[in-house]
Design brief:
Rossmann fold; 6 helices; 5 strands; 17% strand; transferase; phosphotransferase system; EC 2.7.1.69; transport
């Protein structure tokens, strides 16, 4: 089962998790991180690292963030480069999480990412999709 780290501004992540629990019961391999004004990037990184550690059951982890380019998205992007089978998705909403929750048990991380971005429409993107638009810079001597 894919782990979920829901990381959003203010208390949105906690609220989403509470509503998902009310609908589906206990949320295994799911952690929330709330980012509020004044929280340092260092503390956010530590909180997300802890959440990642608790959400990782070995099948991969999906970072679910509210705002593309926001602090939770940026920290998740940095963490995902060092963690195999992790994906970063931005622009989530509660209806989208409800729709995708059952699929976390049957899909691998890349397939889940693609399905979630497709289901979310134009307001949802992923780090992978953004990287396809803007490939990483390659030094000439690295070719």
């Amino acid at each position: 089962m894919l782990g979920w780290v829901i990381a959003c501004h203010d208390y949105v992540a906690r609220d989403y998790a509470q509503q998902l629990e009310a609908r589906f019961g206990a949320l295994p391999l799911c952690r929330t991180v709330d980012y509020w004004t004044g929280l340092s990037t260092n503390m956010l990184s530590r909180m997300m690292c802890d959440a990642l550690w608790h959400a990782d059951g070995g099948d991969g982890v999906i970072f679910l963030t509210d705002t593309p380019g926001g602090a939770p998205y940026r920290v998740a992007a940095l963490m995902s480069h060092k963690h195999p089978h992790s994906e970063v998705i931005a622009g989530i909403s509660l209806p989208l999480l409800v729709q995708m929750y059952p699929q976390r048990a049957s899909l691998d991380s890349a397939t889940f990412r693609d399905a979630m971005v497709k289901a979310g429409g134009e307001s949802v993107t992923s780090l992978w999709h953004q990287q396809q638009k803007n490939p990483p810079f390659v030094l000439l001597h690295d070719k």
